[in-house]
Automatic annotation (TrEMBL):
Organism: Acrocarpospora corrugata
Protein name: Uncharacterized protein
Alphabetical list of InterPro entries matching this protein: ExeA_AAA_ATPase_DNA-bind, P-loop_NTPase
Length: 125
């Protein structure tokens, strides 16, 4: 949370800066020292657990209107292990897994499609 105590008396101001770990490193740069000094609270979000990753994927499928399983348990485990539970990476691998599954003409995302997806995601990062 970013605050400016000089302004707090007449014009309260607070701002939330939310971003990837690179944001924290950028704020630490010398040219942003004044900004860094005003950050009152810093928080780091750990990756999701294996169970949370599975729930996260199922929830997104439900939001898309899918009620029955689309990812095999092995695929979900591999997605979690590779992504370390980081939501953005989970999303990228899951999307590429869906593409690989479609390309193979299969109905369920399996471990093989997920491995193909991981190779694609890693190659583009």
């Amino acid at each position: 949370m970013l605050t400016n105590h000089d302004m707090d008396r007449t014009c309260p101001f607070a701002c939330l800066l939310v971003g990837q770990p690179t944001l924290r490193r950028m704020v630490k740069l010398g040219v942003l020292a004044a900004l860094d000094q005003r950050i009152a609270v810093r928080c780091h979000m750990n990756g999701m657990t294996a169970e949370e990753t599975a729930t996260y994927l199922r929830h997104h499928l439900q939001l898309a209107g899918r009620s029955d399983p689309l990812f095999s348990d092995d695929a979900i485990t591999l997605i979690h292990q590779t992504s370390r539970g980081k939501p953005r990476t989970v999303n990228n691998i899951a999307i590429q897994s869906l593409v690989a599954t479609f390309a193979e003409g299969k109905a369920i995302v399996d471990e093989n499609a997920t491995r193909t997806a991981i190779n694609e995601v890693i190659a583009t990062e």
